[in-house]
Amino acid sequence: MIRIDGSQGEGGGQILRTALALSACTGKALLIENIRAKRKKPGLMRQHLSCVHATQRICAAKVEGDAISSQTLRFEPGQIKSGDYHFAVGSAGSAMLVLQTVLPQLLLAEGQSQLVLEGGTHNPMSPTFHYINEVFMPVLAKIGFACSCEIEQWGFYPAGGGRVRVTVNPSIADSLKKLDLCSPGRLTSSSVLAAVAKIPWEIAEDECNTIVNAARFEVTQKKAISVDSPGPGNVAMLRLDFEHCPAMFTGFGELGVSRKKVAASVYREANHFYKSSAAIDPHLADQILLPMALAGGGSFTTMEPTEHTRTNMKVIELFLPVSHEFSQIDAKLWKIQISAA
Amino acid sequence: MKKVVIGFLGTILDRRGKSNRWESWRPSVSVCQHEELLVDRFHLLCSRRDESLASQIKADLEMVSPETKVIVEHLEFKNPWDFEEVFSGLLSYSQQFDFREDEEYLLHITTGTHVTQICMFLLTEAGFFPGMLLQTGPGRHNSPPGSYEIIDLDLSRYDSIARRFAIQTGDDISFLKSGIQTRNVSFNQLIAEVERVTVRSDAPILLAGPTGAGKSRLARQIYELRRQHSKVSGRFVEVNCATLRGDMAMSVLFGHKKGAYTGATESREGLLKAADNGILFLDEIGELGLDEQAMLLRAVEEKLYLPVGSDKEIRSNFQLITGTNRNLKQECRSGRFRQDLLARIKFWEFTLPGLKERPEDIEPNIDYELQLHSQNLGKPVSFSSEARAAYIKFANSFEAHWVANFRDLNSSLARMITLSDGNRIGLADVRIEIERLRREWRNEDEKDSEAHLVGLLKPEQIAELDLFDRLQLNTVLEICKNSANMAEASRKLFAGSLQKKRSTNDSDRLRKYLQRFGISSKEIF
What was the ipTM of the complex prediction? Predict the structure, then answer.
């Protein structure tokens, strides 16, 4: 049994999701304690329970402590079963976080799986559908994992109501590659997409223009769209396509936040990243650690590893025979090496 | 444990248009928008008129909370502001509702008319809805999800409220002890029990305990406490039954009619009537005559009695507290006290310990008395520290008999205060007082040592006796008095030699012994 102190590092839901995914992938039982102990509302919240129960369904796990505010969770995974799954998530929890939790085990499963996920598709504090589809999955493909997704309906906080379809194909263990993404290569193109639902389209257009003007690189494509969604919402996403790897930066509109601010949060981050000459953006660095560890290792450059990233590394090392090394190359650039232990 | 919410559709607050409704706070929807509140089922009550709003809210609820099953139920009120109609409607709803042990119920009271809120509250408080109240609010920014509170009407679950009750109880207990910080554990437990009885019961209380243990003071404090809690409105009437002797007793207690007997020139109300709606404290109840006991029994049982010389019964609703330093059970056995009356008056029985049984309380009582005297004198009265130490050491020693308990202690303090210079009791004052107390208690011992001689012998004769003979004779006489005849007394007195030599003439031996002091057996048996 792997015991994890859920309050270490940034002590949030990310430890739980990484641990759940790894437990399901490795078949090792998990005991996680002090879940979100330092938070204002400690213990499991609804969005975390959604992840626990989704993972439980796929790997037929025995679970104890799966209740609101519970700070201890015991998770004993069984056999992973591919197939058709439907998960509906409440508004505050992103459907994409549930996908992030269940995807690794389905990638290792024997047969093909079809997922339907309902809830938020573009929620703050979690990867958006577009990030998964245009950044995360293409990098997974480079490793040798085959999956794809499409959006049927957008879902924004607080109403939710989005809908995403995901197809996961089995991968061949021997053909998984150890990625070496240490230089981004040339910036081939970049595109900005701003979307609004139930609010004026001009807001999206303004955001696009602001981003294009403020970017330190040429934004080659610009798209402002009005989408259908049960509730109102606004998101601005800027994708940078480098020769070796894409990156994406996102800003969310909310009541009381001006479109300028939304746009600024996007171009500031993008400009920083562009200047750093890292290959992998900080969000992807977080998410790609687990698939790379499953593939046996690899290396990449990124910006300064966040608390999130460091905690993820520790949790991964508890389950998989890998070790992480990070070294600072210059002021803004770090290299992370994942090797088989 | 599953969470089930029951709440009315908010026909105004839940109706926030079509496209921009998500920007506004809607109470019913907000219930299911909290990350830490997982609702398994939501019973949404509404009128058929609001069907379309209800289905919109249901759909929105299920979207933001796929975990929640929403059940729309129709509850029609002709006038949702009519208390009677709403109450009975909700009552029937609660009665047909299938409440289960494994579910937890939250009654959402933010929506609905004020009348429905009041009725939900009343029905929850009365237990028809076995759950807690759920109150939601828009929060500071008037945006979803806002805030919520779960209100448990079981007040004992609230720390601060429970603490206030505890403080009140603590105040009451301290009040019963006249504010004296007693330390004796069993005494404090006793008072805590008295406090509960005082606040909750009007049944008769019997306060037992030696003289000076504080029965009278406690009875008065019980009365004051009941008055503060508005449990009594009448007076506190106190009488020592030892002072009620002869014909007057009946009249004092039960009153008389004008002309009832010679000298009864005016009608008299009597103490029972004076204590109407108040408390009657009969101290030394064991001293009450049998006739008065019979009258009192009826007055306690039926609140009715007959004044002397009257043929019209009088009603008085008093609470009876009695005090005794005698063993009333023994008094019953010897026929001096009515068994049925005892059973009646000792519904609550408390035995106050004497001062010697609670030595740790001597100091707090001294402080209390000093404080009282300071108030009366208008200037502070205190001990010098060595005087205090000496006095307390003596007070706790085996030498200190405290025969009359707190009465002894209080008089002792009063004497020292009076005699001390400048209101500060010095070591010299304490030494004098200790000597005085020793003398007083020795005298009492001595009095005891010749109790049985008095009457049989003249005082000059007693004075002539050696202490050795005085003590021996006194004990012999005590045994004689507790025996039926000479033979029984001698059997007790010579039990040892009787076993050894089977002598049969012990009566003669006793007779001869008594004769030495000029006492004949006829005088004793």
Answer: 0.88
